[in-house]
Design goal:
Largest sheet: 6 strands, mixed
Radius of gyration: 24 Å
CATH architecture of the largest domain: 3-Layer(aba) Sandwich
Organism: Deinococcus arboris
Helix content: 10-25%
Order of helices and strands: EEEEEEEEEEEEEEEEEEHEHHEHHEE
Protein name: PKD domain-containing protein
CATH superfamily of the largest domain: CAP
Number of domains: 3
Number of helices: 5
Mean pLDDT: 85
Distance between the termini: 36 Å
Structural class: alpha+beta
Number of strands: 22
Pfam family, one: PKD
C-alpha cells in the first residue's frame, strides 16, 4: 500500500515596518518614509507573538546618537538594537535623536502591540536524525520569561547536543519555569531502534525533483513545458528535520505532517534542527518502493506538486526503511526559503 499525505506548508514570515520621525511626530507605516533626516525601521515576525524578538535600525546624520526606550524598562543606544519582549502587552516605544552635545533634537513614540501565544507551556521536540542518535529541543514551548528550559534524557541534563544511545526506551523531559513562578514540563518515552537510510535513494529523489523543476513541470496539465525553475540545493539542516520526520513515522506509527509522538509541525522541526526560514513546506509518503515511484506520486498530486515546483531554494530529504512497520518505507521532502 502506498500513501502520499496532503502537502503541508507553514510560513514563518517577517514583517518590515518603518517608524518615521518628523519633527518630533511619529508615524507607523508599512512602506518607506522619505524624511531623509531621521528614519527608524524595525522587523519582527508577522504573528507578533510573545516572546517577540524585534530588530530596530535607525538612519541618522553623522555625529548624532540614537537612544531607544523599549517600554518594558529596557533601554539601548546606537544605530541598531535587538530586543525581546517576553510578555504579551502593548509597549510604548520611544526613540530619541541626540546631537554631539547630548541634546535631544527629535523624539518619537509609537505603540508596539505584542500578542499572546496562549497559556505558558513546555514542549519537547525530538529529533532522531540517524539511527541511535537523539537530539532534544524545547522548540514549541510558550514561555514569557528569559529563563531557559532544562532538557533531561534518562534523568540526566543533556541540553540540545546529539546523544548516542543503544536500542531501548528512554525517558525524556523538558522542564521550564513560567513567568508566574510555576514549573511547566512535558515527558515522553523515546524509542531507539534500528532503521536504515539510503544515500543513493536520497540522491535520486533530489535528481528527479530538480529534473521536474528544470522541465517546467505543469502541475495542472501533468506534463513538462512551463517555465524552468532553478535547482533546489540540498541543505543538511533541512535533512535533519526530514530524517526526524521519516524516522518518527516509522518509530511511532503515525502518518501525518503533525507528529503523533511529540506534536511537532514541519516548521517546528526545522527550527529545532537550527534553521529559521521564511517559508517551509513538507511532502511525505509511505510504502513506495523506489525514488521514481515516490516522485511520480508527488508530481501527480496537486498539493505535493506545488511544493516541488514552489518558490523554494533549499531542500532536505529522507528515506527510511524499517521492516516490520506498517509501511516499511517512509519518505520525506522538506522545502524552505530563507
Amino acid at each position: 500500500m502506498a500513501l502520499s499525505y496532503p502537502a503541508g506548508v507553514t510560513s514563518a514570515r517577517r514583517l518590515l515596518s518603518t517608524l518615521a520621525l518628523l519633527g518630533g511626530s511619529a508615524a507607523l507605516d508599512s512602506g518607506h518614509a522619505q524624511d531623509g533626516f531621521f528614519r527608524i525601521g524595525y522587523s519582527a515576525s508577522a504573528e507578533r507573538q510573545a516572546p517577540l524578538r524585534v530588530t530596530f535600525q535607525a538612519s541618522a546624520p553623522a555625529g548624532y546618537t540614537v537612544q531607544w526606550t523599549f517600554g518594558d524598562g529596557a533601554v539601548a543606544s546606537g544605530p541598531a538594537a535587538d530586543h525581546i519582549y517576553y510578555r504579551p502587552g502593548t509597549y510604548r516605544l520611544q526613540a530619541a535623536l541626540l546631537d554631539a552635545q547630548g541634546r535631544v533634537v527629535s523624539r518619537a513614540e509609537a505603540s508596539l502591540p505584542v500578542l499572546s501565544a496562549g497559556p505558558e507551556r513546555a514542549a519537547l521536540t525530538v529529533l532522531q536524525p540517524t539511527p541511535g542518535e537523539v537530539r532534544l529541543s524545547a522548540e514549541g514551548s510558550v514561555l514569557y520569561t528569559p529563563a531557559r528550559p532544562t532538557l533531561l534524557l534518562g534523568g540526566r541534563e543533556v541540553g540540545t547536543v546529539a546523544n548516542r544511545l543503544p536500542n531501548g526506551i528512554y525517558a525524556a523531559t523538558v522542564r521550564a519555569a513560567t513567568s508566574d513562578g510555576r514549573t511547566a514540563e512535558q515527558r515522553l518515552n523515546i524509542t531507539v531502534a534500528p532503521w536504515t537510510t539510503s544515500a543513493p535513494y536520497d540522491a535520486e529523489v533530489l535528481r528527479l525533483t530538480n529534473q521536474a523543476r528544470a522541465q517546467g513541470w505543469n502541475c495542472a496539465s501533468q506534463r513538462p513545458g512551463g517555465p524552468a525553475l532553478p535547482p533546489l540545493k540540498l541543505d543538511p539542516t533541512l535533512t535533519v528535520a526530514a530524517q526526524a520526520q521519516s524516522a518518527g513515522m516509522s518509530l511511532y506509527s503515525y502518518f501525518d505532517h503533525t507528529s503523533g509522538f511529540d506534536g511537532s509541525t514541519p516548521l517546528r522541526r526545522v527550527q529545532a534542527a537550527g534553521l529559521t526560514p521564511t517559508t517551509v513546506a513538507e511532502n511525505i509518503a509511505a510504502g513506495q518502493q523506489t525514488p521514481a515511484e515516490v516522485v511520480q506520486g508527488w508530481l501527480k498530486s496537486p498539493g505535493h506538486c506545488r511544493n516541488i515546483m514552489g518558490d523554494f531554494t533549499l531542500i532536505g530529504l529522507s528515506y527510511v526503511n524499517r521492516p516490520g512497520t506498517t509501511y516499511t518505507r517512509y519518505w520525506t521532502q522538506v522545502f524552505a526559503r530563507l
